[in-house]
Target: Ketopantoate reductase family protein
Amino acid sequence: MDILVLGLGVIGMTYAYALQKAGHNVEHFVRESKNGKVGSTINIKLLDGRENSKGVKKTDSYSIKLAHPDSIYDFIIVSVSMGKLEPAIQTLSENNIKGTLILMCGIWEDKETVNKIAGSYSYILGYPVAGGTITKDFLDCVLFDHIMLERQENAAISNYATLIQAFNTANIKTECPDSTLEWIWIHMAINAAVISTAAKYAGYSNSEKAAESLMSSASALSEAVLAIRETIKIVETRGVDLKKYKSELLPYKIPSKIAGLAMKKMFANNELTRKIMQLHSNVDDLIYVCKSVYDCGQQLKVKAPLFYKNYQVCLRNLQIT
Model:
């Protein structure tokens, strides 16, 4: 299959590597002004969760193949910094690049807005279960054995089975929640509570240190659980039926002190999850998640005093106004 990845970000590069290793032709589109700055290969350090639940440590290299305007692909992976989806799709349109979009981004907009942003492109919503950090010639990443993907009946694309097959060839299973967009909202709400709590205690000038501090403290994790209950209420106020997502939300319904202890144990024993927390270092993205949830809660007049307070402390720690 011919697959395009927009840009050279962590998520796109991680899945590009997996799909290329599975035998697919994978190319990257970058702006013409950046072409001369892109190397032909990048070194990869991967904690691979596709073989077992503990993850297998691998080192490898990935060959970067650049795409050109006026090209057609089976699929186009779009995983851009949060809030930058519209200009990303405009870039594809302006360069006459065609294909079915896989939107693997944190999206806080409603479905009508996403449809408007996508324009004439057919698309499917997904959410990556991967992460890491990247420099010019080195990618340090984590890849789980599954990816979140929109159900076939909710996705207006004609090549759904082909997409499932592509991920299967890379040993990546697909999980389909009742509504992927609602699932993304819930995931962002949980992340907002966790991020703001971590930043309150350790700041995000060193995101790895902040993550370590949170994951090692049962009391901080207990506070994060209380904040999660508030941010989930914001999602519910948007009209989401939380009963459809019982399994995802169950860990946050038990007493917070017990939940904090359980989460601390989970992070200590689950290297994949711990590593992905340590590597998530894009402060702009982290703040965008918090701000999206915060602004929505304020607009809907949802009571979430702990989350609001932690978010404000987070901004002060980062000296953001």
Summary: The chain has a mean pLDDT of 91. The first helix runs from residue 10 to 21.
